[in-house]
Each structure stands twice: as structure tokens, then as C-alpha cells.
Amino acid sequence: MPGRARNISKPRGRITAYAFFVHAYREEVMRTAPDKSYAFSEFSRKAADRWKTMSDQEKKPFHVMSDRDKARFEEEMHRYDPSFMVEKKRCQRRRKDPLAPKRSLSAFFWFCHDERPKVKEQFPDYGMSESAKELGRLWGQADAETRQKYEIMAQRDKERYHADMAAYKKIAASQS
């Protein structure tokens, strides 16, 4: 399924009086206190409060700028040709060969394979994320002997995977 088409020549939307004000207010704040930085939400709140307290006379220059930009936008829309569309490309995911060998599991995944039923039994109301957190906590608390057991299982699985992959590549090469 291809991506949605978009028009690259479409005019940029018109700018509101408030947007012009915010831009000017940001420049004013940067001039008066260049070393101070505000979080976006804090700055937005301050700008909105300032805009609300301004008189119509103080807002007038921003409305004039907005009206000019509205005229620019309308002029560009009259010249705009919507037939010039560009198709966006989608990333093509490589399809996984169903005959390819299954990847090897890490020591942690082997641990989860054995311990998940115990966690589910102990905490039946846990969802996937809570179970995963509990398994991670248990893995972090596991002693060296337990970890070693699962490291050996992971190593054996890794060797199995490499052997299966070599055989798979050999078969794939002979078929092509």
C-alpha cells in the first residue's frame, strides 16, 4: 500500500495574530533575559496570559500583520495548482522467510521461559508489562549459579542457530 500523496507546492497556511504575537513575545523574552530558558508549557502560559491582558490597541499591529498574511495566503491559493502531487514512498520491510531458522534466545529469555508460569501463578492479575517487570526484577536478583545455567542454555541455542543458519544458507544457495 503506497503512502498518501501530498502536494509540495501547496501554500503555507495563514498565520494568526496570536501566532505573530507569540513570535514577537519570544524575541522580546530572549532579548531581555537571554540566559533564562523556559519550558514550552510555561512559556505558552505566560504568552497566553500576556495576550489576554493586552488591549485591542496593543493587539492591533498583530492583527494588521495577520491580515497581510491572509492576503498573501489567498493570493497564493489563487495561483495554486492542486494537480501537482508527489507520492510519498513507504519503507519496504524485508519479508521474513518462514523457512529461515528461528533466532537464538538470550539467557534472560530462557529464564523467562521457565519463570513466567510461576510469576503468573503468584500474580494472576498481572498483565504483560507487569509480568515482564517482575521477571526483570527476579533476573536482577538471580544468583550466579542460576544465571550460569541460563547462560549455558543460551550458548547451546546460539550454536544451534548458527548450525541451522549454515544449513539454511547452503540450501538457499543451491536453489538459486
UniProtKB/TrEMBL annotation:
Keyword Nucleus: yes
Transmembrane segments: none
Record feature DNA-binding region, as residue ranges: 11-81, 101-169
Domain HMG box: residue ranges: 11-81, 101-169
GO cellular component, one term: nucleus
First and last residue of the signal peptide: none
Family: Belongs to the HMGB family.
Name assigned to this protein: High mobility group protein DSP1
Organism, as annotated: Folsomia candida (Springtail)
